[in-house]
Amino acid sequence: MLKYNVPYEVSGMYMGTQYGKLTYPILDDFISADEKISGVEMRGMFKFLGLGRFGRGGAFWSCHFYNKNTKKIVCVSGYLDASPMSSWTKQLREIQAVLKSVEISK
Fold first, then answer.
1. Contact status, residue 91 vs residue 82, Cβ threshold 8 Å
2. Which residues of the chain have pLDDT under 50?
3. Is residue 39 domain-resident?
4. For residue range 29-42, what is the model confidence (pLDDT) as tens digits?
5. Residue 47: which domain range?
6. For tag attachment on the chain, is the N or C end more exposed, with fewer CB atoms within 10 Å?
7. Is 93 part of any domain?
8. How many structural domains are present in the chain?
9. In a domain, 106, yes or no
């Protein structure tokens, strides 16, 4: 899905989830702050792939849940392309806050 929907600035490269020994995504139960939405959250690392080389990457956090009104699965994701030389804690907490505050409108 990422290959076709998240292109890189270099044509022929795309975003890919890392599945290495130390970077394999973590899955947990998800519940919104108001406890009205529950589903699955996934945290992990991504990098841009393609053309036989790698582009930059970083961390991601996403949640997936079923919307009973539309009868569709919804995915809300946040990606952090940050320097490996600085802490990512603040930015990751901001992404988590956005995900936890998701609401379904009528």
1. yes
2. none
3. yes
4. 999 999 999 999 99
5. 2-100
6. C
7. yes
8. 1
9. no
